Amino acid sequence: MDGRLQGKTILITGASSGIGKSTAYEFAQSVPSGVKLVLTARRIDTLKGIAADLEKQFPKTKVLPVQLDVSDPAATQKFVDGLPAEYQEIDVLINNAGLVRGVDKAPAIQEDDLNVMFATNVHGLIHMTQAVLPRMLKRNNGAGAGDIVNIGSIAGREPYVGGGIYCATKAAVRSFTESLRKELIATRVRVIGVDPGQVETEFSIVRFYGDKSKADAVYAGCEPLTPNDVAESIVFAVGRRENVVVADTLLFPNHQASATIMHRKT
Ligand code: NDP
Ligand code: 8X3
User: Where does the secretion signal sit in this chain (predicted)?
Assistant: First the structure.
């Protein structure tokens, strides 16, 4: 793993929390000889703290924290175009930034929630992919090289009540991921989909607009995945031999069998 990933430039969106943050630590830990991490999110102070801690714990890893709202297409393109020279050749793009807002059902879905979820989870992921892909395709004498990892969800495979918009965004991610893999089949760019089930992060706090007690209730009687469980799968997929594509991963905690079937201890 260390030899395969040594010196790679890895861009992670949504790295200020949860799965994105754990993925940054998992790469740094798995590659003691060092990687270059570009970490983006809206909360730049949090990212700067993570960057400082990573460089302290893993002296051979270099970290560039950048404030970026992926729902802003112009900012995304400007960010990619303006990357410092030593970070310009992105080897691995982890499209992780995403969120859920609310549990409203039609016809009560709030317009703002609808727009923010699609702009972040779908448009944001597509714009970042479009901004990074041209340089990946030029590498390797035009054969292309690099990995694009899209974080979907069980919600993209199985829609549930109160998740109409979030599930639709993740179904769109799944569909885009599959199209992209097919479109890039004549290149050496790998397209990797990772669909987690229940993971305890800030995800449910965001869903309930900051109400921690409602978020805690989601995990009552359960043992959800940790963000590090997902990070390990991401790093495993990226660390395979270049000819191996871990195309599609679905991860559940042991008590979960589908988006809605969970065994809860009473
Ligand atoms: P967190 O809320 O802990 O992390 C979400 C990350 O996305 C944060 O770093 C946040 O940073 C970032 N983010 C949100 N909106 C934007 C934006 N507009 N621009 C840039 N960054 C943004 O949740 P998770 O770690 O759980 O979520 C990560 C991904 O995993 C998401 O795509 C989610 O849908 C997916 N997922 C989560 C599951 C779960 O149960 N937790 C299960 C399946 C999939 P900041 O606020 O600083 O911008
Ligand atoms: C998060 C999983 O089932 O809470 O994507 O929507 S779920």
Answer: none
